[in-house]
Design goal:
This protein is of the alpha/beta class and 387 residues long. The protein has 2 domains: 113 residues, Aspartate Aminotransferase, domain 1 (Alpha-Beta Complex); 236 residues, Aspartate Aminotransferase, domain 2, CATH 3.40.640.10. A 7-stranded mixed sheet has the order 4-12-11-10-7-5-6, sandwiched between helices. The protein has a 4-stranded mixed sheet with strand order 1-2-3-15. A hairpin with a 4-residue loop joins strand 16 and strand 17. The mean pLDDT is 97. The chain binds pyridoxal-5'-phosphate. The site of pyridoxal-5'-phosphate has 14 residues, from helix 4.
């Protein structure tokens, strides 16, 4: 009997050790891990520099509260803000908390209540972020949701215009809808949303929880499309596995998050900040990011080539090292067979196989992944008939 709530449909793999792109389970079996803890371990498992930064902080102090000055938080905020072309940062503990704070800030700064988000979006599991999420399965049984959230269709600007009433505080979107099936935003659509926000005096919130921290080959994915959002949220990869979240905003928003207006006991905890500073030092580097882009292009092109005429595959899509392969059938059996082969990948909905390899994965590891994926998909497409 388990004393855990059964909220997760867990795999039959119990990690006991992990380093770089590989993970070892309790039976001694090794796996090539292309999940990165769902887009968290962007530098692979246990990156040395981050480990040393955490150890250094463990030997200083662990927690003091946000009543104290923090040079390290200032350093982390400067790195984040500079990379995202923003001016102010609030540190939280998770993606949902960062988005929750972004929604609060947008309502307070504009004095308006309505938030437009998108069908198939995912923004978190708290009440505001669940209300923002455009997927019924996430909300089932928890009603009523918070008021004043409306959902447009992703990549369809007319659907945004239709619900863009005068009481809209913000449009909140992902540059690539991750949990909703790895759908990449069109440049023209994203730029039109930003223009509409300016015209209507509303804010643009970009949720970079999954797409940020180098995942797509830029510090943040919005930077592929020359966007200039008012608020950006970050979490997942920011701490390399140590929990942390962040809301980034423009200078004009500082006045609305004054003393006492928002807060968190653990937000900006010294250990998380040490991990974030070390992580950003490595990832926000032009050469590192170019490599991510190059490896992403390679993986996507190899997948597209292989699946070109495969009857099971509908589409390969993505950017950098955030990739979705949409199948015409459920991918559960493929995920299971991959695990048997010693390879870990993720679902994004019923039919999409999602790949979030560590940004440090080598071309050799990518080739190793491709060999296993081809073998599994070929076996499923042409099952061996046993005599
Ligand atoms: C785009 C996006 N926003 C928000 C979240 C929620 O983050 P967390 O699970 O850290 O609360 C996620 C998590 O998958 C996400 O992908």
């Amino acid at each position: 009997m388990s004393y855990l709530f059964p909220t997760y449909a867990r795999w039959d793999v119990e990690p006991v050790d992990a380093a770089g792109s590989y993970l070892t389970d309790s039976e001694g079996k090794q796996y090539l891990d292309f999940t990165s803890g769902i887009g968290v371990c962007n530098l692979g498992h246990r990156p040395r520099v981050v480990k040393e930064a955490i150890e250094h902080q463990l030997n200083r102090f662990w927690h003091v509260s946000n009543l104290f000055a923090s040079g390290e938080q200032e350093k982390a905020a400067k790195k984040l803000a500079t990379a995202a072309e923003m001016d102010a940062v609030f540190f939280a503990n998770s993606g949902a908390e960062a988005n929750e704070a972004a929604i609060k800030l947008a309502r307070k700064a504009t004095g308006k209540p309505k938030i437009i988000t998108f069908k198939k979006s995912f923004h978190g599991r708290t009440f505001a972020t669940m209300s923002a999420t455009g997927q019924d399965k996430i909300k089932s049984g928890y009603g009523p949701m918070l008021e004043k959230f409306s959902y447009a269709t992703y990549n369809d600007i007319d659907s945004v215009k239709e619900i863009f009433t005068d009481d809209v505080a913000a449009v909140m979107l992902e540059i690539i809808q991750g949990e909703g099936g790895v759908h990449v935003g069109d440049k023209s659509f994203l730029q039109a949303v930003e223009k509409l926000c300016h015209e209507k005096n509303a804010l643009l919130i970009v949720d970079e929880i999954q797409t940020g921290i180098g995942r797509t080959g830029r510090p943040f994915a919005f930077q592929h499309f020359s966007l200039n959002p008012d608020i950006v949220t970050s979490a997942k990869g920011l701490g390399s596995g140590v929990p942390i979240g962040a809301v980034l905003g423009k200078e004009s928003l500082k006045a609305f998050f004054g003393p006492g207006s928002h807060g968190s006991t653990f937000g900006g905890n010294p250990i998380s900040i040490a991990a974030a500073n070390a992580t950003m030092n490595i990832i926000f580097d032009e050469v590192f990011l170019k490599e991510v882009e190059h490896k992403g292009d390679y993986l996507i092109s190899q997948l597209a080539k292989f699946f070109q005429s495969n009857t099971l595959v509908k589409e390969v899509r993505g950017k950098g090292l955030m990739i979705g392969i949409e199948f015409k059938q459920s991918i559960q059996a493929i995920l299971q067979e991959l695990r048997t082969e010693g390879v870990l990948a993720l679902p994004a909905g019923e039919n999409v196989l999602r790949l979030l390899p560590p940004l440090t994965a080598t071309i050799h590891e990518i080739d190793e992944f491709l060999i296993h994926l081809k073998k599994v998909v070929e076996a499923i497409a042409e099952p061996v008939v046993k005599a």
